[in-house]
Amino acid sequence: MLERLGLALMHRMDPERAHTLAITALKSGLTAHPGPVTSPRLQTEIAGLTLPNPIGLAAGFDKNAEALQPLAQAGFGFLEVGAATPRPQPGNPRPRLFRLSEDQAAINRFGFNNEGMEVIAARLAARPRTVPIGLNLGANKDSADRAADFAAVLTHCGPHIDFATVNVSSPNTERLRDLQGKAALSALLAGVMEARAALITPVPVFLKIAPDLSNAELEDVAEVALTSGLSGIIATNTTLDRTGLQSRHREEKGGLSGQPLFERSTRVLARLSDLTQGQLPLIGVGGVASAQQAYAKIKAGASAVQLYTGLVYGGLSLAARIAHDLDHLLTQDGHANIAAAIGTDCNSWL
After folding, report:
1. What is the chain's pLDDT, residue by residue, as a tens digit (350 residues)?
2. Are 204 and 163 in contact (CB under 8 A)?
3. Torsion sign over Cα 80, 84, 89, 91
4. Residues paired with residue 165 on neighbouring β-strands, in sequence order
5. What residue numbers bound the domain in which 11 lies?
6. 15 contact partners, CB below 8 Å, separation of at least 6
7. Any idea what the CATH number is for the domain that residue 336 is in?
8. If I label 53, which of 43, 130, 230, 297 is the partner at 20 to 30 A Cα–Cα?
């Protein structure tokens, strides 16, 4: 009841102010802490990481790694923070976050606002160890060499994280998505993997892609991913598509997340699953707000899922609820573990 009252209050505020308040509430200990939700059926491995459950927090919620301890106790099986860039940057002018309540969605054009890799690395150095924590790597807007920025952040923060994500799919930094092209992506990943190899303990590196890629572009991404040494792919980031939206904010510039993204992102996920044939683990993101949707992505080919916008409408307790309900769904279908369900319904999404 308290969470519902809190959400109702936040939905009367400016969305970015509400988000800041949510981080403050977490840091102040004003939220419930169910602890990591797990069971033998939910516990799983992805790219060498042991997860208590496959429900993760997507990047963007805790951009500056400010609330690691409370988030690690919020029921998630893993966390991803950031994106972090080498130098601090303010991001795009406000307003830059819009709540589309009629569509259970959001549009953001933050533009990688963050306090920079040095501040974020210091917080990650004091992180809890109860669940795996990863960092979304970004590039400064005014960088002369964006590819080098990704490697620089990994070099600086790598000793304090369990995995890293190369984010070339945000629509809010001009021409960033151009780095998803085959030649540019290969060159970028070569630099990142060189930085990874230089770490005392190399960490898994994932690639986060856009949901707006054509089939030919997805084929290129799969080919590069399989030959570059990547540990997996995160599908997907936000979309530029606005089909079927009802909210008055539907034409705002930026990336759309939430329920309207679910089908598009799941189809991209299934296509990647088909292209990679189980050779790379996939993490499904986009429109996850229930155990049924998390399960659908797993059956479409995901080894784990992430959520963010769902928290805007379902509250922080959503992660624990999804994990508990997913355990029941797996039991009903006779699956002993997550691995047994991965890709079992992939063809229906192709």
Report:
1. 778 888 999 999 999 999 999 999 999 987 777 888 999 999 999 999 999 999 999 999 999 999 999 999 999 999 999 999 999 999 999 999 999 999 999 999 999 999 999 999 999 999 999 999 999 999 999 999 998 999 999 999 999 999 999 988 787 777 777 777 788 899 999 999 999 999 999 999 999 999 999 999 999 999 999 999 999 999 999 999 999 999 999 999 999 999 999 999 999 999 999 999 999 999 999 999 999 999 999 999 999 999 999 999 999 999 999 999 999 999 999 999 999 999 999 999 99
2. yes
3. negative
4. 136, 206
5. 2-349
6. 97, 98, 99, 106, 312
7. 3.20.20.70
8. 230
User: Domain tally for the chain?
Assistant: 1
Q: How far is CA 68 from the centre of its chain?
A: 15
Residue 298: what residue type? I
pTM metric for this prediction: 0.97
- Give the active site residues: 170
Measured distance CA(297)–CA(349) in Å, rounded:
10
Q: How far is CA 336 from CA 257, 277, 306, 319, 329, in A?
A: 32, 22, 22, 21, 11
